[in-house]
Amino acid sequence: MASAKQLMSSGSDAKVDERKRKRMESNRESAKRSRMRKQQRLEELMSEKTQLQNQNGLCDERIASVERNYHVLDAENNVMRAQLAELTERLDSLNSLTRFWVDATGFPVDIPEILDTLLEPWQLPCPIQPIDASSDMFQF
């Protein structure tokens, strides 16, 4: 028969084995929960990445639209500058002809001088008036 020491040691070995088994099971569950949290976080990050890529695409489209509008306005502005230069030159030529007519005939011609401010309307001395604008004016 087994001695009392042997029974006690086999009983404590069983307790140690039971604690070891419970600890291993607890560690497995903890590792499983940790893997699940990591997987969930990865899925959240992938979703956020997709959302940010979509937003980035929309921003790229808006930028391209603004650039197209800028180029159109820049071209129109260049045309207007050329027209201004041409009209200014024509006006100077007509004024020169008028002065020649007056000098040649001696008949005064009453032509009012055109103010420089009319040739440069952005410099007109007029009160600044607010421009009513809404947020949908500049839709892209």
UniProtKB/TrEMBL annotation:
It comes from the Eukaryota. InterPro entries: bZIP, bZIP_plant_GBF1, bZIP_sf. Keywords: DNA-binding, Nucleus, Transcription, Transcription regulation. GO terms for molecular function: DNA-binding transcription factor activity; protein heterodimerization activity; transcription cis-regulatory region binding. SMART domains: BRLZ (SM00338). Residues 17-80 form the BZIP domain. Residues 1-12 have a biased composition (Polar residues). It holds the Pfam family bZIP_1. It is found in: Nucleus. It comes from Anisodus acutangulus. Residues 14-32 have a biased composition (Basic and acidic residues). GO terms for biological process: positive regulation of DNA-templated transcription. Coiled coil: none annotated. One of its GO terms (cellular component) is nucleus. This is BZIP domain-containing protein. The keyword Transcription regulation applies. Residues 1-54 are annotated as: Disordered.
